[in-house]
Structures are given as structure tokens and as C-alpha cells.
Amino acid sequence: MPGSGEPQKIMVVDDEPHIVEVIRLYLEHAGYVPLLHFRGGEVLDRVKTETPDLVLLDVMLPDVSGFELCSQIRKLPGAEGATPIIFLTAKGESIDKLRGFNLGVDDYIVKPFDPNEMVARIKAVLRRAGKQGAAPPVPAEHASKPLEVGNLSIDLDQYKVCLSGSRVDLTPKEIELLHFLAASPGRVFTREDLLGYVWNFDFSGGTRTVDAHVKNLRKKLGSHEAWTIQTLWGIGYSFEVRGT
């Protein structure tokens, strides 16, 4: 079960009824509430009104592409724009995965898929997003301390980032990238390094994914006197702590 409170809502957007039915059965068995859609036209409004905990989104829809829907969701303000998204698609080529990650997708499941693996991936993404209520608390002796630099606090156990005490809505991958860079201040990482470490994805043509996530981090976090994400042109990025 996802948690002891309200059941978590998983929005499913796919135009194949038999696949949707299988997904529904497995989600309900796992204790989730599925919100089913066979077209993409009303999804954006439903995300605003229903505030799902995660969106399972097919790329190939009859009226709008999953890529476009993902982009629209990511443009929503506040927590809605950071809603975890998993792409569900028959396309498994690297370029399609990169396009999805570039838009801020949290995971990618290729059809045909094992429904049990799908549920496991959903749980993992929810956990990374700090939405998995069933996860037991981490014992104090095993919990890692939040990484703090100036007014910035990054808690990777809770997937929470705060600026001057106020939480910032970031996607799980944005949090992972920020934490990875900030954990090694001054060290320069190439884009290929970051793809491998943060995305576990080895593909030399995918560096735009990293650039897009860094751009989003700068937009959401703003500029600060104590630290900055530095671009080293032609090389990559580093997290620089400025002198006090």
C-alpha cells in the first residue's frame, strides 16, 4: 500500500484500452487510485484539478504527443509543474529517451513491459520525489545529513531542496543533479560524466539533456552570493562555492 493516509493517485494516459485495463488492475492491487485517460486533450486540466501524485504517459496519443503534454505539465507553476512523469511507449530508441529526459521525464518504460516492474518503477519515482508514504523512516544513525551551502539545503533522503528555509519545487532528476554537483564543489564534470553518474545513461549525443536540466535549475534557484553552477565552455559544469 502506498501509505496510511489518502491513497495516491496515478494518472494513466494511453489510447490502448487493453493496456490501460492491465495497468488499472495492477495499480489498484498495489493500493493506488488510477485516473484513466485515453486521449491527451483534457490531461492538463485534470492535472490542475486532481493533482495526481504521478503521471504515466504514453508518447503516441491520437490527439497530442506525450512529449508535448510533458512539456505543458513542466510549465505549470509550483508543485504541479514538478509532478513526476514516467513515459510509457513502444519507442525504445536512444533519441526518444533523450528527448523525454530533456523535457524532465523521471523514467521511461518501453512496451511490452512487465506490470510488476512498472509498479516497482512507479514506487521508485514516488520515493525519489518524496511522495512514497509507505517507505519506512530512515533510522537516524543511517540517515545522511542535508547538504548545506549558504542559503541552500539539499536533502537527498527526502528529495527536498530549500532556499533560505523555503522549499523549491524541483523534479527528482533536478534534485539529483544539483546534489551530485554540490557534493563535489569546485570539481568539473563533463556533460558525459553527468549523463553517466546522474542518469546512468551512456550516450555521447545526449548532452543537451544535461544542459536543459542545468538551465532549469538556474531558472528555479536564481543567483546567489555564496554559490553558483558554473559553466566551463566546451567542457561541462561545476558547483562553485564563493569566498565568504
Automatic annotation (TrEMBL):
Pfam families: Response_reg, Trans_reg_C
Keyword check for Transmembrane: no
Keywords: DNA-binding, Phosphoprotein, Transcription, Transcription regulation, Two-component regulatory system
Cross-referenced InterPro entries: CheY-like_superfamily (IPR011006), OmpR/PhoB-type_DNA-bd (IPR001867), Sig_transdc_resp-reg_C-effctor (IPR016032), Sig_transdc_resp-reg_receiver (IPR001789), WalR-like (IPR039420), WH-like_DNA-bd_sf (IPR036388)
Residue ranges constituting the Response regulatory domain according to the UniProt record: 9-126
4-aspartylphosphate: residues carrying this PTM: D58
DNA-binding region: 144-241
UniProt domain OmpR/PhoB-type: residue ranges: 144-241
Name under which the protein is recorded: Response regulator transcription factor
